[in-house]
Amino acid sequence: MNITQQIVNAIWLGGVYSLFALGYALVFSVLGVLNLAHSAVFMWGAFIGLVAVTQLNVSVWAAIPLAMVVSGVISIVLDVLAFAPLRRRNAPRISQLISSIGAAILLVNIAQLIFGTQPQRFPLGSIPSDPLEGLPIRITPIQIIILLVAITLMAVLQYLVVRTRAGQAMRAVAFNQRVASLLGINSGNVFRMTFFLAGALAGAAGVLFGLAYNTITPFMGDSVALKGLTVIVLGGLGNIQGAVVGGFVVAALEVFSIAAGGSNYREAFVFTLLFLILLFRPQGLVGQAAETRA
Amino acid sequence: MNRKLVSLLFVFLMVFLSFGVITAQDEVEKPLVGFWESCPTPSNLPATVTVGAIFGLSDAVAVYGVPQRQAVELAVEEINESGYLGETVFEVRFEDSAGNRDQAIFAMTKLVEEDKVLAVLGPTLSSEAFAADPIAQENSTPVMGVSNTALGLTGMGDFVFRNSLPEAAVIPGTIAQAKEVLGLEKVGLLYGNDDDFTVSGYQVFRQALLDNEIEILGEETFAKGDLDFNAQLTNLISQEPDALVVSALAAEATQIILQARALDYNGPIIGGNGFNSPAVLRDTGEASEGLIVGGAWNYGNPNPTESSVRFVEMYEAKFNQSPDQFAAQSYTGAWLMATAIRCADFGADADLAEQRLAIRDALLQIRDFDSPLGVFSFTEDREPLHDPIAQIVSGGKFEPLAVVMGESG
Q: What's the pLDDT tens digit per position in B95-137?
């Protein structure tokens, strides 16, 4: 069962990484800024899902859209407070990056005040976590569900960005904000929409992550933040397919380096690849050179 | 003149008597812990004595740190209300290390060099202790780990103590007992390779397995903060071990138990001290059945000391939750510190270095101290000495291994 099980493990982990990295990639593609508060919104998504299930007695499945909407709104507020004022002043991008770090700290601290620091969990039994019977591999219903939701969300996002007018506007602003504004696109709206979408994705990822590992703390974003960053740099900064590919590549590398007996070196494999990519293909695995983007 | 003297004496007598009444009343409620007889009530101490405490109060390590702080608060309250230090108020100043070496160093520097505390309890993690304790040592300030179990901790210097049994004192017995009861022949080994505590736990496990002639089928590692252990567990489980032996902290321990069970592994899991927490059981539910852990203290110990029973009652009444091993150790740690201060009875005019030295020397003298952990002594190497207890999870609770196996066998 060993190698097939490891393939399953890799696909599953890849789904989790990609889902988180999508929102990161989306904001970067439109604003050209790393939103380091993404992991904090992700954490809030998990807590909103948890509160919905434990306090409001909502089912786990209804908690996901709820968390997506609320996280989307949090993300818009984040834009209004932490990014928009800097954009208006034409502040350098590094200021926006730092502003997002501040916002992340603030969001984590608020969560710490409200929810405390002890890890919280969905009640045992609310998640279908008994492995499916009669298969040559071990997989739990929740893993399948999460993978399906993740793939669906990726497809929907891809459709939104490529096929709809709003997506066109987003790509136009991403390509050149000034030109897009001259063409009558309200870039402020586009930014807010981008943040909402990114926040909603973070919220969904947060709830699913919370369900998958059933450990929700104000600091849960920290461990994924670095992974997510690796994933989007590997896949190509600001590239949505890149985030997905990157997620699966990082997961596969980790899992197969362990399967090959090198659990001590799994991070070394990942970061060696990252290093090589930055050296020889700085636009990332899927990314195109800057001139041909959009 | 004479009349004044007489009235003054009279006033003194009244005060003395009223004190007698107060202490007589208190004697009914007198704590079961403490050297009430061996050391006289101190009379020279300053009005307040301040001790620092560094615990991981935020981040994942809060699972340990919060009960630790609560237990110390409970002890402080009891010490002050019972007049254990005479007129002197025993004060503990808490700092948060968040499971982070740098923050622990910062907290230790602040407590020792700026706040000028007499001694320090903590930090929570062994890795923090290895980073921060040298600062206490350099400043000749006694520091007592109440949850550090890594190898060689007290080797850092002659001011470094701990009251938490090192893994080396707990694990060999656990493995030997598990082999005897479960007939272990081959096991898989999994450990965190970036933390002093989990690495030293791994080393002790490995040695104990070799000593007991148990085959190690494979060794896998992970890093602190990891959430997914499926790949490592798949590797180990596919080799069909009799047991999984794991050295991990509570956060990772929880995930490892759940994911091993989801991969359909139903055999025993033998864990280090990190698994020894009610939080791990609460969060893993049925998955933790059959988990075997050695420990220094157990809530369900069939033969607890009287002070242990009293401690559990008080802790549950005050915090509405059950204490874990770390709480019991922290509570004992605060009492040991207060005891050293009581027995040292240094004068208020002694300078800080003398006071700290007096506490260190008094700690070294502590032998046969009745505490929730059992009869407790410090060795010459500033290590704790008391009986450990092997435990297995049965019916959702840590039960002493001997009791459960006695029932089934």
A: 999 989 999 999 999 999 999 999 999 999 999 999 999 999 9
DSSP B363-404: HHT--SEEETTEEEEE-TTS-EE---EEEEEETTEEEEHHHH
- The residue of chain A nearest to residue B239, with distances taken between CA atoms, is A2
pLDDT tier at B26, thresholds 50, 70, 90: very low
Across the interface, whether the CB atoms of A264 and B193 are under 8 A apart is answered yes
DSSP B277: S
Distance CA A71, CA A79 (A): 12
Of residues B29, B43, B33, the one with CA closest to residue B342? B43
- List every span in chain B annotated with CATH 3.40.50.2300: 45-165+304-378, 168-295+390-408
* Mean pLDDT of the A261-275 span: 83
Spell out which residues of chain B touch residue A206, defining contact as CB-CB under 8 Å.
Answer: none
Answer whether residue B243 shows pLDDT above 80: yes
Q: Which CATH number is A218's domain given?
A: 1.10.3470
The minimum CA-CA distance between A7 and chain B, rounded to whole Å, is: 9
Task: Put the strands of the sheet holding B374-378 in their side by side order.
Answer: B369-371, B374-378, B384-385
Q: Return the pLDDT at B408.
A: 53
Q: Tell me whether B217 touches chain A (CB under 8 Å).
A: no
Q: Is the ipTM of this complex over 0.95?
A: no
> Cβ B66–A117 below 8 Å, yes or no?
yes
Element (H, E) at B72: helix B62-81
The residue among A9, A135, A139 with the most chain B CBs within 10 A of its CB, best to mutate, is: A9
CATH of domain B168-295+390-408: 3.40.50.2300
Cross-chain residue pair B235–A222, CB shorter than 8 Å = no
Is pLDDT above 80 for B14?
A: no
b/e string for A105-143 if b means 16 or more Cβ within 10 A?
eebbeebbeebebebbbbeeeebebeeeeeeeebbbebb
Domain with A25, as residue range(s), is: 2-292
Neighbouring C-beta atoms of residue B406, cutoff 10 Å:
10
B34-44: average pLDDT: 91
Matching residue, tokens 């890149």: A242
Contact B263 A5 (CB under 8 A): yes
By Cβ distance, the residue of A16, A138, A267 closest to B263 is A138
Structure tokens at A196: 């909402």
The answer to whether the CB atoms of B231 and A121 lie below 8 A apart is no
Phi (first) and psi of residue A160, to 5 degrees: -55, -45
Tens of pLDDT, residue by residue over B312-349, are 999 999 999 999 889 999 999 999 999 999 999 998 88
Strands B215-222 and B186-192 turn out to be parallel
Q: Confidence class of residue A287 from pLDDT cuts 50, 70 and 90?
A: low
- pLDDT confidence of residue B356: 96
**Domain count for chain A:** 1
Token digits for B15? 């005060």
Residue B4 has pLDDT above 80, yes or no: no
Task: Write the single-letter amino acid at B79.
Answer: I
Mean pLDDT of chain A: 86
pLDDT tens, residue by residue, B266-278: 999 999 878 877 7
Whether omega before B123 lies within 30 degrees of 0, making that bond cis, reads: yes
Which chain B residues are closer than 8 Å to A138 by Cβ?
262-264
Structure-token pair, residue B394: 């049965």
Q: Residues B162-194, buried b or exposed e (16+ Cβ, 10 A)?
A: bbbbbbbbbbbbbbbbbbebbebeebbbbbbbe
Of A28-42, A254-268, B106-120, the one with minimum mean pLDDT is A254-268
Question: What is the fold, at CATH topology level, of the domain defined by B45-165+304-378?
Answer: Rossmann fold (3.40.50)
